[in-house]
Design a protein that fits this description.
The complex is a heterodimer of chains A (132) and B (51).
Chain A (H helix, E strand, L loop, with lengths): L7 E7 L8 H13 L3 H11 L5 H10 L4 H9 L4 H13 L7 E4 L2 E4 L4 H16 L1
Antiparallel strand pairs in A: 2-3
Chain B lengths: L1 H21 L11 E2 L6 E7 L3
The chains are: A mainly alpha (132), B alpha+beta (51).
Chain lengths: 132, 51
């Protein structure tokens, strides 16, 4: 992302699989950190520490980021962002997605974990198209 | 004749597959977390599961 500063925008949709223990709570953790203006730092921590995403670990990551852990924990426990997460999930199901990650690069679908080089190639194509 | 039919079918499938890949989907951004400027030339929307 740093390579493309100002040229590329990244948007996250949560698609936690139902059968995985901590998927939903981890998505909640990201959005809860977002309430305190720290979504992307939490996003990076969650990816780095996955699959260690149990409640205690999530609260520890919040502490690491210097978040208000009381507000953060309350947000997790009340599943404050459940409606937004469910909306994203519904969107994913409606679009017939069954894999994460799935990327849409200017609308072009790329499924699954791809190499940085592969994604970069598509981004570069799109940047070239945009210049025309 | 049978082989020709199979080849034609395969060709049609290959063409439609290629078209599917070229399709551009519209994904609403709504209030999802965003990194980068709204006027960026490229928008990547990622459906993500942290676990």
């Amino acid at each position: 992302m740093e390579t493309y500063k100002g040229k590329v925008r990244l948007v996250i949709k949560n698609y936690p699989y139902k059968y995985r223990d901590y998927s939903h709570m981890a998505a909640e953790a990201g959005l809860a950190a977002g309430d305190q203006g720290r979504y992307w730092e939490m996003h990076d921590l969650l990816l780095k520490n996955s699959p260690r995403l149990d409640r205690d670990s999530l609260i520890r990551y919040a502490k690491e980021l210097g978040l208000d852990t009381r507000a953060f924990t309350a947000s997790l426990d009340t599943m404050k962002h459940a409606a937004v997460i469910e909306r994203d999930k519904k969107l994913a199901v409606d679009m017939d997605l069954y894999n994460t990650p799935t990327f849409f690069i200017n609308g072009r679908k790329v499924i699954g974990n791809r190499s940085y080089e592969y994604l970069k190639k598509i981004v570069d194509e799109e940047l070239k198209n945009a210049k025309k | 004749m049978k082989t020709n039919f199979a080849a034609a079918l395969f060709f049609l499938m290959a063409v439609s597959y290629a078209h599917a890949e070229d399709k551009r989907y519209v994904v609403p951004i709504e209030n999802s977390p965003v990194y980068g400027p709204a006027n960026a030339a490229v928008t990547i929307i990622e459906f993500l599961d942290f676990q």
